[in-house]
Amino acid sequence: MNRNQLRFAALALLFALPATLATQVPTASAGPWTKSSGEFYVKFGESFYMADAFRNADGELVAGTDYFSATTYLYGEFGLMNGLHIHGYLPFVVAQNQLGGEVYSDRGFGDAMLGIQASPLKLAFPTAVRLDAKIPLYSGDISGPNALQTPARGDAQLDLTAWLSAGAGFNTIPLFFFADVGYQHRTSLTLSDTARGPFSDGLVFAAQAGYWLFDDRAIISLNTSGLMALQEDTVSKSYVTVGPSLFIPLNHFIAMEADAYWTPYSRNSAAGWSFGLGVSVRGGP
C-alpha cells in the first residue's frame, strides 16, 4: 500500500468516527466512504460527557445539577459488496446526577444504532446514501421515590434517519472534508408502556474538515453536527456540537483516536462537554 492509498484508507476510517455525546447524538456517521466487499472497521472506545442539566424520567430537562456519564461503546462497519456496507453502534452507559447534595445514578445499555449505506453513483468524488435506526436497549421506565432525580438513558423510542453524504480528499494537498445532511423521523415505537413525547421530526447535519500532520502520521480535524427539530415543544431536542478530533495510525491496521465536543447551542437538551478515546482496527482484501 503506497502513501496515497494509506491516506485515503485513513480518511475513510476517520469518517467512521461515531458521535457519542451521551445525551446529544446517539448515532454514528459513516461518512461518504462506503466499505467494499470484505473490508471492515471496528472501534472500541470510551466517551465522557459533563453538563449542568439532565433529562428525567418524564423526559423533562432539569437544570442546576452536575451531570456526568461514561459511555463504553463498540462501533463497526462491514462491507457486504462493492458500494454497500452495514454498520452498527452498541453503547453501555453509566450516568450519575448530583442534585441537592445527593447522587442519583443509573447504568445499562443505551441507544444502539443499526444502519446500511450504499454508494450507487460513480462520481469524481465520494457520495453515499444511508439509513440509520436508533434502537433503545432499555425500557425507559424509571420507578421509585427517586425516579425524577435519576438521569434517563434516552427517549426510549425508535428513530429513523435518512442521510445524504459527500466528501473529497486530495492527492496533492493533505486536506479533506465531508458533509452529511438528513431527515430524522421520531416514531412512537417504544419498549416501554409509557411513551415520552410526542416528538418532532428534525433536520440533521454533520461535517468534518481535516488536515494531515507530520508527514502523514496524524490527522487533526474540526467536526460539527446538529439536530434542528421542525416543531417547538417541551421534549424535542435541538442542538449544535463542534470540536476537534485526532487520528493517529500506528500501522496499516491499528489507530488511536481522540475527540472532544462542545455544545454552543441547545434546546430541550443539556449543553455540555464531551471527550473520548478509542482504538480502531481495520482490514480487508
What does this structure look like?
Helices cover 4% and strands 60% of the residues. The chain is mainly β and 285 residues long. The N terminus is likely disordered.
Task: Give the SSE map.
Blueprint: H1 3-14, E1 40-55, E2 61-81, E3 84-99, E4 102-109, E5 111-118, E6 127-136, E7 157-169, E8 175-190, E9 202-213, E10 218-229, E11 238-249, E12 254-267, E13 272-283
Antiparallel strand pairs: 1-2, 1-13, 2-3, 3-4, 3-5, 5-6, 6-7, 7-8, 8-9, 9-10, 10-11, 11-12, 12-13
Give helix and strand order, one letter per element, not per position: HEEEEEEEEEEEEE
By oligomeric state, this entry counts as: single chain
Helical content class: under 10%
Alpha carbon gap, first and last residue: 12 Å
Largest sheet: 12 strands, antiparallel, barrel
What are the segments in which pLDDT stays under 50 over at least 5 consecutive residues?
1-28
Number of strands: 13
Overall mean pLDDT? 85
The structural class is mainly beta
Strand content: over 45%
Dominant shape: globular
Number of helices: 1
CA-based gyration radius: 19 Å
Give the spatial strand order of the biggest sheet: 1-2-3-5-6-7-8-9-10-11-12-13
